[in-house]
Write a structure and sequence with these properties.
The chain has 13 helices and 12 strands. It is α/β, with parallel strands linked by helices. Bound molecules: iron/sulfur cluster (SF4).
């Protein structure tokens, strides 16, 4: 099958840094307990690889990172690429924990922007996903940071201040941000807007938006928990008008659906291991709807083979 490999795809620099930093900790074989505060990245294989290496991941849908810290009594705490709020940082210090911080530079830049705007007495409308760790960290900076996902939420904010700044989570859809910001301007015409979509997210989305109209279906390889992966799928559907499916591995490909296509494309989220994407590409390239021997989509990868330094 004709398979267009959209580029860039896969790991971004923030994910590479986080995974490498934790891999280096494993190599040092410290006696201390190591706990990652939240999923290191939104990818189950990587989380389970680190668990097998004795590194605990503390994650909960109902508890914030500040609350989760109560469950760590000693050793090393790892902050993930999504970043943490100043309160979390301080609490970890107060508990005497050794901190390994893998917060992505792009997230730090966005947090510093919020801090500077607050110092100038702005109230912040932060376009982001509720309960996403990056939004949680931004919200944790100050009560004047308001996370919104929809325009309805903007309306119900009812902010009285004249000093309103709008910014966003780094992995949001460029196109959603544009639409929501335009709506915000109708309510608050004098907003100060700073687009903080990271470059890694931006160029992946633009590659998908500009893919050829001759492509019949776009496969996004990524974890269902990965916000940037699900946004890539939305960009394909809403901006390039090409149907798209989010798949976690080659095994998620629907063979009956695939038989309808002659030309497909593949991209992957910033937290998707390269080997998983490559296995998808190889399967699609070999696929021939009339040749049953090319229809077996059982993955040959194991967690151990997925996570090797060579794949980063
Ligand atoms: S997606 Fe962007 S902000 Fe998030 S870790 Fe990667 S480069 Fe950093």
């Amino acid at each position: 099958m004709e398979t267009v490999k959209l580029s860039p795809r896969g790991y971004c620099h923030g994910v590479v840094n986080a995974v490498n930093t934790i891999s280096n900790l494993i190599e040092k074989s410290t006696e201390k307990n190591i706990t990652i505060l939240g999923m290191v990245i939104h990818n189950k294989q990587i989380v389970s690889y680190f668990e097998n290496e004795g590194i605990k991941t503390l994650s909960s849908e109902s508890k914030s990172r500040l609350e989760l810290l109560d469950e760590i009594d000693d050793g090393i705490v790892v902050f993930t690429a999504h970043g943490v709020s100043p309160k979390v940082r301080q609490k970890a210090k107060d508990k005497g924990l050794e901190i390994i911080d893998t917060t992505c530079d792009d997230v730090l830049k966005s947090q510093n922007l919020i801090i500077k705007l607050l110092e100038k007495d702005y109230k912040i409308i932060y376009i982001g996903k509720h309960n996403h760790p990056e939004s949680e960290a931004a919200k944790g900076i100050d009560d004047k940071v308001h996370v919104v996902e929809t325009i309805e939420e903007v309306i119900s904010l009812n902010l009285k201040s004249r000093n309103i700044a709008v910014t966003n989570q780094t992995t949001m859809s460029l196109y959603d941000i544009y639409n929501i910001t335009e709506e915000i301007k109708k309510i608050y015409p004098d907003i100060y807007f700073v687009d903080e979509v990271c470059n890694a997210t931006r160029i992946r989305q633009e590659a998908i938006k500009n893919q050829s109209k001759t492509i019949e279906h776009c496969f996004i390889v990524g974890d269902k928990l990965s916000n940037n992966s699900s946004k890539l799928r939305e960009v394909s559907i809403n901006e390039s008008h090409i149907p798209s499916t989010l798949i976690e591995s080659v095994e998620d490909i629907d063979i009956e659906m695939l038989k309808q296509f002659k030309k497909v494309s593949v991209s992957s989220g910033a937290s998707t291991p390269t080997k998983i994407t490559n296995e998808v590409i190889q399967f699609l390239e070999k696929f021939d709807s009339t040749d049953l021997s090319t229809h077996n989509n059982e993955s040959q990868l194991t967690t151990q083979t997925i996570i090797t330094k060579k794949t980063l």
